[in-house]
Amino acid sequence: ETAREQEAIQGLLEIGVDGLIIFPAQGEYFNAEILKLVISEYPFVLLDRHLKGVSASSISTDNVSATMQLIHYLFGLGHTHIGLMTTPPRDTTAIEERIEGFIQAHAESGIAADRSLWMENITATLPAAFVPENKKKEKEHIKRHLAAHPEITALFAMEYNIARLAYEAALESGIRVPEDLSIVCFDSPDDAAGSLFTHMRQKQNEMGRLAFENVLKLRNGESVPG
């Protein structure tokens, strides 16, 4: 993915675009082309992730407080054994911040965040792996996890597609949602049938608008907040 991203940035710079809005590929490293943009002070804005230790402008949800709200909501319903489900965090700031919010909410409420209830290696929902065969395997993992941890009464999924897999795995295991198991996540498809779960809806239109406005400001030599 990173190689494709580098090619895309190089290609757009060759065409001579005035600025870039980049929604970076997931993974440990930002590609070298993004670092070159920083050094050359090229007008660009990152979406949903920020560069640690580098002053590049980025637009994202306050993932920590959004997650805290969602977890406190579950505590309010009486849940104390909450499983966290994520793709490998691998320096993806949005995911790291959501995990931080999850842990902070537990600390504030004096509830132990039991890491043995987490599934931190969900890979079937990553763009390159989202195929039926992988989804089926992932569901089997989730079924085994739920069977091994019957104390789990709620799941917090990093994203809708993970929540959906967990939902299907639960139903196939004879676990009723939401009677036996509550599931919450970030984002949801816009159609009514898609919003199966209580979720944090990010202001995606607003993020896009701000990113566009900030690129224009940078192009005009104005400074924008990090």
Describe this structure in words.
The chain has helices at residues 2-15, 32-39, 63-76, 93-109, 132-148, 160-172, 204-219; strands at 20-22, 44-47, 58-59, 82-85, 154-157, 182-186, 198-200. By secondary structure, the protein is of the alpha/beta class. It is elongated and about 55 Å long. The model has no long low-confidence stretch (mean pLDDT 92). The protein is built from seven helices and seven strands, in the order H-E-H-E-E-H-E-H-H-E-H-E-E-H.
- Please report the total strand number as a whole number: 7
| Mean pLDDT over all positions | 92
Residue share in helices?
40-55%
Q: Count the helices. How many?
A: 7
Physical arrangement of strands within the biggest beta sheet = 4-5-6-7
What is the CA-atom radius of gyration, in angstroms? 19 Å
What summary fits the major beta sheet?
A: 4 strands, parallel
Q: Unreliable runs, pLDDT <50, ≥5 residues?
A: none
The coarse silhouette is elongated
Proportion of residues in β-strands:
5-15%
Element-level helix/strand string: HEHEEHEHHEHEEH
